[in-house]
Amino acid sequence: MAPLDQYLMERNAEMALARSAARESISRDAEVMVLGLHGYETAAKGKNGFVCMVQRSWTAGIDDPDFWNPKLRAAICFNPPAARTYLPNTIKRTEWVLAGRSKAQMFEGIKVAFDKKELPALESGAMCFMMSKQSYLSDRDPHWHPHLMFFVPLMDPAAWGTGLRDPP
Questions:
Q1: Nearest to 20 by CA among 58, 73, 69
Q2: Angle at Cα 40 formed by Cα 90 and Cα 60, nearest 5°?
Q3: Alpha carbon of 70 to those of 77, 97, 160, 166, 168: distances in Å?
């Protein structure tokens, strides 16, 4: 991991980037969290149950080549079900990264936390907005494409039509 200061942003700039993840009609009343020296902290209280933040590289998959890329800035705005059930995973990963855990330790810790029910299972309807054109997700593809993400429990890949002889 690069030194923590390479992952930090100026507070108001981070708040603006976080809010850019969703339409203003959603983000203006959303809670906004920013990364500080001790993890994510609330920078603005919300009224609608949505939570906007800027995720860092360690929220990627374990094999992602940009896992420790300090340039990565992913503006994201979680709807209420995702804020309750997906966001705690991001918060926990960040705590462990700041505590110096390795990728392997972090992913094992996440597995154990789910097994022990210390992290909540995904709620039905959990999703997020990633609409900001200012997000930077990788050195491989700097042109970001706004989108929505829907969070679902792990399932057999065949349920998505993958692994077949003529995949979509």
A1: 73
A2: 30
A3: 20, 13, 33, 38, 34
Which residue, among 136, 6, 14, has the nearest Cα to 66 in the 3D structure?
136
* Centroid of chain to Cα 70: 15
CB 139 within 8 A of CB 66: yes
What would the pLDDT profile of 82-116 be if each residue is shown by its tens digit?
999 999 999 999 999 999 999 999 999 999 999 99
User: Would you give the distance in Å from CA 4 to the centre of its chain?
Assistant: 18
pTM: 0.89
Give the separation between CA 168 and CA 161, rounded to whole angstroms. Answer: 7
